[in-house]
Design goal:
The chain is an alpha+beta fold. The chain is 50% helix and 16% strand. Helix 2 packs across helix 4.
Amino acid sequence: MSHAWIEIVTADGVRHRHVLSGGLTVVGGKRADVDVANTDGDQLHVWDKPPKMVFLGAGPPPRVNGASCEERELRPGDLIEWRGVRIEFGGLPYAAIEEIPLAPPSPPKPSTLAAATSAERTPAPEDADAPAWRRIKAGLIVELGLADSSTARRWQEAIQRSEFEADSCARDLLAASSIAAGDARVAERCTRLQRDLIMAPVQLGLRGSSRKLKSTANNWLAMAIAQFVVFGICCLLVLVTLFVLRVRWDWSADGFFDSISNALSGS
């Protein structure tokens, strides 16, 4: 098996080869897997499956085979020029399979041919569900604190940069963990997750009714507070008006009401 690699060639001709790890390899910038001097925080993200390069930063983007670009798929032999260094991409990201000539196979029996055709049309359920289970298991071991901390942190940072790849993430986390198949802690968490998912529609219905009741109560409370505020403002305006009439024109509401009372008493 041959692995993908990058070779850093500095301006003075010094070469440093770095074999790419599974998933993401950060070149330059803070917390880089491969250091490059004078990058001003800019980074190159190199992925192994599928092989590609992504530029992150505010400076000038790299040139791949002479063409300026910020994202590009990589092939063995590609030359990346960036920040005064040359980065040569080589190796094979996947296993190299040598073709071995075989003798012509004998014609299959009709029963065998029918069984093979049926198997091709109907994939095994466990094989079809395997990628989904690996993704879920990778997330569970991170939640339970059973995953390799450096690998989990690297993928958490990749998610924050919108560079998440589910299959690569699951492969890296499971490969770096020491969790045995059938671990009781993972099984117990799966049981609780299954229960929560089954009860989710019921819980959503109850929560919806509760939200409606709370919304109605909040509306009545808001209406009462609004009415109280309006009433208080009206009372304040009446008091201010009476005060101005008393000070400016020596008119008193008490005298006005007394005159009305006397007029009614005299009649």
